Amino acid sequence: MKKIVAIVQASGYSRRMGVDKLLLPLKGKPIYRHVLDCLQGTELEEIIVVSRFEEVLRAAKEMGYIPVHNMDAQIGQSRSITLGLQYAAEADGYLFIVADQPFISKETISSIIGEFEEMGGIVLPLYGGKRGSPGLFDGSYRKRLMSLTGEETGKLIIGESQEDLHFIWIDRKEEGEDVDTMEVYERMMSS
């Protein structure tokens, strides 16, 4: 079995929402907590949670995850990626998951890992045919991921590595939905 480290990105400013969305309640707990709970009991070697929120970091520590305080979140999404990798052990693969995707399931995480075990490379889920998160990158991409700056994300590397991409189909489209607008949040609250 390959050694896989998860890096939870929980540092965003929620500019489109106007409020810190990760701390909003959804079905009895904060949005970020859905993702942290989903990762419990998975076959991940370690789980690193990169956040600028004390509440998220406390919860991560209580759950036995590695909390990493992102004091430079204003730099952009790349900062969560590079910070997470700085604290991560050497691994066969790195799973990058956003903390505002509350309906992601353990089954999807396991399917992504299973595909990676078999194929390596970069594994992405397809939610109704649309690429989504989380993305699992082979350890050989670590150096390239560490070179990201500003708002660059793994999408840049995915674009450069088409021949190394593998996909898994996820039937439940809502698993791939992240909370980017108040409209989406309100719809999730009523579902």
Which value, in Å, is the CA radius of gyration? 15 Å
Summing up helix and strand content along with how strands pair, one would put the structural category as: alpha/beta
The secondary-structure element order is: EEEHEHEHEHEEEHHEH
Number of helices: 7
Give the uncertain stretches in residue-range form. none
Shape: globular
Portion in beta strands: 15-25%
Q: What is the arithmetic mean of pLDDT? A: 92
Helix content: 25-40%
Largest sheet: 8 strands, mixed
How far apart the termini lie comes to 37 Å
Number of strands: 10
What's the multimeric state? single chain
Question: What do these coordinates show?
Answer:
Helices cover 34% and strands 24% of the residues. The chain has 191 residues and is an alpha/beta fold. The strands form 2 sheets. Strands 1, 4, 5, 6, 7, 8, 9 and 10 form an 8-stranded mixed beta sheet that branches. The termini are far apart. The mean pLDDT is 92.
List the helices and strands and how they pair.
Blueprint: E1 4-10, E2 25-26, E3 29-30, H1 31-39, E4 46-51, H2 54-62, E5 66-69, H3 77-87, E6 93-98, H4 106-119, E7 122-127, E8 130-131, E9 135-138, H5 142-146, H6 154-160, E10 165-170, H7 182-190
Parallel strand pairs: 1-4, 1-6, 4-5, 7-10
Antiparallel strand pairs: 2-3, 6-9, 7-8, 7-9
